[in-house]
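Here is this case:
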Amino acid sequence: MKIEHIAMYVNDLESARDFFVKYLGGTSNAGYHNKNTDFRSYFITFDDGARLELMNKPELADAPKPVNRTGYIHIAFSAGSKEKVDELTTTLKQAGYEVLSGPRTTGDGYYESCIVGIEGNQIEITE
């Protein structure tokens, strides 16, 4: 089996879409809007076929997202090289995103950085 897609609710659907397209190389579909429920979504497709569904609807509960919590903690993207990890981390930092760690080589051998991306959600950038 393979993971078909991952979905996340966001408050600002357009900004979230723009983040994943601008910084992480995704391609967005035209979007979906259910006029009866006011549910809206975009599917963002990445080079290897992985997809992320960004969703929004009225009256979402926006719980705090502490760094150390249970549940899904980050989405990891492979930049392809250590140099590209460094470049993207610098670009995101200059754009105002918080760098939580790295770039660095972790104890289990990954070269990575971790940033706080859209709406407090963590993004890991690996080589």
